[in-house]
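One chain shown below:
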Amino acid sequence: MFNLKAELLNIDINISDENVCKFNKYYEFLVETNKHLNLTAITEYEDVMIKHFYDSILLAKTIDLTKINSFLDIGSGAGFPAVPLAILYPNVKFTLIDALNKRITFLNNLIKLLDLKNVVAIHSRAEDFAKDNRESFDVVSARAVARLNILAELALPLCKVGGYFIALKGKDEEEIKSGLKAINILGADFLKAYEFNLPLAKGERNILVYKKTKTTDLKYPRLFSKIKEKPLG
């Protein structure tokens, strides 16, 4: 059976036995709920541990989460990457938003099950959430929610100046290049692209890190219909 603790130690991330138990509870609850709510196509134990949990935790190799206070995850779905990170970094306050209330119900039940005091899940679209939460978060993340030039307009208005926008994306050089103009318009600079190999040859992962360097113009984000119709860049 896949040993999450041992594999994380290989990348210098320590995890307690108590937290290993939490990941096992997470897996069981995810698979059980997935029987009646479409949360993931990945349900085998080894695959969930690697492609969801380990994959999410890789974000901690791109920035120092011990120096972060607030973390927003957009389109959190079944809780990736925020919940695995919240288990390991209890001093960071994680906020998860998703446009589908059924997923938020799942997340709230999961938060209770795992007794995560540092996590809140909110039913909202990113462009609506930005109305009252502009530039409020040290880190804003999203995992394969939309193309980068669309994703940036949803995420960067919520990120503090000096904070980070982190996109867990596929390795699409054209998308990364075309998204850079939008990133710059929204007040951020490209910092670094990280490439990782998952254990047991389960694939590659790419994490893009951008740093917010100036305030985002108040006209962003636009209505999602406008963002989708005419993306920046």
